[in-house]
């Protein structure tokens, strides 16, 4: 029996959740149950896996165990970009080298989510807005946007190169040097989407919320223990993203980082006028760590996602949130000086999981256990398709996208701690320094 020592502990400040009506969580697991499948984690990945298992094995009983309540985890607290092209966590150019496979996976994921949101009328502010990949400095234009543009040309992807007054009119601010606009990204409220997906699971899936796995026997069958019950099942899908190593899976291969989001109150009519009344937009920064992800939402709020910190203990200091909120305010003051009175309704933290080589943690890790973890900061699409394909793989269902996902590689091994911590912090400090013009 392996004790699961680290459990998720997200703060209660998720601004997306705060915009939604209260939701009654599914009851926690009480007592001992058996099932044909157990899925651990009810984010985009686990929910996609459970739904697909139910489709492929309509007579099987599927149990999903979620430590928190749905939408409390990262799936409900991200920036809400369902991205169809590589998202540059380390370097968009490196990821673009695998772009054909990646693009097929991401677009299949968006199509899948589009079908579900339509079929189940999931109101999640789904908007086919595309996104701007923007640089604030000439350095960012030269080192990121120009090479990315060349890759887009090579891929024959449609895009618009925007700068000056054209870009300022689109964003309502002239504080960016240039941007590449690509049309395929969907913007949405992630908490509404993940809630909607959880609340429309097929009848053969039983979701237990507030049911953390605290002990795991990964023999065959697996036996997972929660504080008040247990699940025994011959097959398991692991979908806990950065916490997979707690289950002994992808150990010394996953790097946990925390990052932070803030949402303002809605802009007043006069403030919206001051921006020139642009259509809602989403922007990813040329440098994902140094820069800020920004959005103007459909209800005219501004989102800021910025500050990325190596967090090997999976813990974020609550007091630190106030410091980050002040940083987010400073970003708005820099980018939107015409909005001096804008205030935040919420600032929250969340975890992302990356691998050194940007590869996902996907595959059969034992004959009866399949994992889909490590989505390198783009889990709305990567997690959804990873979960769906984990179910296909586990059921022996032929799907050419499995080969695409496997072609992205496996997370590279990293040195043991404390050497890892020193290395990551040093590399990170260097990256922030070289990209300081994008801050
Ligand atoms: C602020 C922020 C902004 C982001 N912006 C974007 C974005 O715009 N677009 C994008 O694609 N991605 C974004 N991401 C990343 C994205 O949120 C993740 O990649 C995605 O949530 C991964 O989905 P998942 O289902 O694999 O993992 P998670 O969403 O982390 O779900 C895993 C679930 O497992 C549960 N769990 C963990 N351990 C246990 C246990 N022992 N027992 C039971 N349950 C357990 C957790 O509670 C959690 O709910 C962002 C992340 C953050 C924090």
SSE blueprint and pairings:
Layout: E1 2-3, H1 15-18, E2 31-34, E3 37-40, H2 44-56, E4 62-65, E5 81-82, H3 92-96, H4 99-119, E6 131-135, H5 138-155, E7 160-163, H6 164-171, E8 178-182, E9 186-187, H7 190-199, E10 205-208, E11 215-217, E12 222-226, E13 229-233, E14 235-238, E15 255-264, H8 269-275, E16 281-285, E17 293-296, E18 302-310, H9 320-335, E19 344-354, E20 361-366, E21 369-373, H10 379-395, H11 400-407, H12 419-434
Parallel strand pairs: 2-13, 3-4, 3-14, 4-10, 6-16, 14-21
Antiparallel strand pairs: 1-11, 5-9, 6-8, 7-8, 11-12, 12-13, 15-18, 15-19, 16-17, 17-18, 20-21
Helix pairs in contact: 2-10, 4-10, 4-11
Number of helices: 12
* C-alpha geometry: globular
Strand residue content? 15-25%
The CATH class is Alpha Beta
Given the helix and strand composition, which structural class is it? alpha/beta
The biggest sheet, with number of strands, parallel, antiparallel or mixed sense and barrel status, is: 8 strands, mixed
Number of domains: 1
Ligand identities: flavin-adenine dinucleotide
CATH overall fold name:
FAD/NAD(P)-binding domain
What's the helical proportion of residues? 25-40%
How is the largest sheet built, in terms of strand order? 7-8-6-16-17-18-15-19
Low-confidence stretches: none
């Amino acid at each position: 029996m392996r004790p699961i020592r680290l459990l998720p502990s997200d703060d209660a400040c998720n601004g997306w959740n705060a915009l939604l009506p209260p939701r009654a969580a599914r009851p926690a697991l009480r007592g001992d149950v058996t099932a044909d499948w157990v899925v651990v984690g009810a984010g985009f990945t686990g929910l996609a896996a459970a739904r697909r298992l139910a489709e492929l094995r309509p007579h099987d009983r599927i149990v999903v165990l979620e430590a928190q309540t749905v939408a409390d985890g990262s799936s409900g607290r991200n920036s809400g970009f369902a991205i169809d092209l590589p998202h540059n966590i380390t370097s968009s150019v490196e990821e673009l080298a695998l772009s054909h496979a990646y693009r097929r996976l991401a677009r299949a994921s968006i199509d899948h989510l589009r079908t579900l949101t339509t079929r189940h009328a999931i109101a999640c502010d789904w908007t086919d807005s595309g996104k701007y990949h923007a640089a604030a400095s000439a350095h960012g234009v030269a080192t990121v946007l120009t090479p990315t543009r060349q890759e887009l040309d090579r891929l024959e992807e449609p895009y618009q190169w925007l700068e000056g007054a054209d870009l300022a009119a689109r964003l309502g601010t002239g504080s960016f040097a240039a941007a590449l606009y690509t049309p395929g990204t969907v913007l949405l409220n992630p908490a509404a989407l993940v809630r909607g997906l959880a609340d429309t699971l097929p009848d053969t899936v039983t979701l237990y919320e507030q049911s953390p796995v605290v002990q795991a026997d990964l023999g065959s069958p697996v036996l997972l223990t929660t504080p008040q019950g247990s699940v025994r099942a011959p097959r398991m899908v692991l979908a806990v993203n950065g916490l997979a190593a707690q289950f002994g899976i992808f150990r010394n291969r996953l790097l946990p980082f925390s990052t932070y989001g803030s949402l303002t109150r809605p802009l007043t009519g006069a403030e919206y006028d001051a921006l020139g009344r642009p259509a809602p937009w989403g922007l990813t920064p040329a440098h994902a760590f140094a820069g800020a992800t920004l959005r103007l939402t459909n209800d005219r709020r501004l989102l800021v996602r910025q500050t990325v910190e190596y967090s090997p203990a999976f813990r974020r200091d609550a007091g630190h949130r106030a410091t980050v909120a002040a940083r987010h305010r400073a970003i708005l003051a820099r980018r939107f000086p015409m909005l001096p009175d804008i205030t935040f309704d919420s600032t929250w933290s969340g975890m992302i999981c990356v691998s050194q080589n940007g590869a996902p943690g996907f595959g059969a890790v034992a004959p009866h256990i399949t994992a889909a973890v490590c989505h390198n900061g783009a889990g709305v699409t990567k997690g959804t398709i990873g979960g769906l394909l984990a179910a296909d793989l586990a059921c022996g269902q032929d799907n050419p996208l499995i080969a695409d996902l496997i072609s992205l590689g496996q997370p590279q091994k990293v040195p043991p701690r404390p050497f890892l911590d020193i290395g990551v912090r040093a590399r990170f400090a260097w990256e922030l320094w070289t990209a300081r013009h994008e801050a």
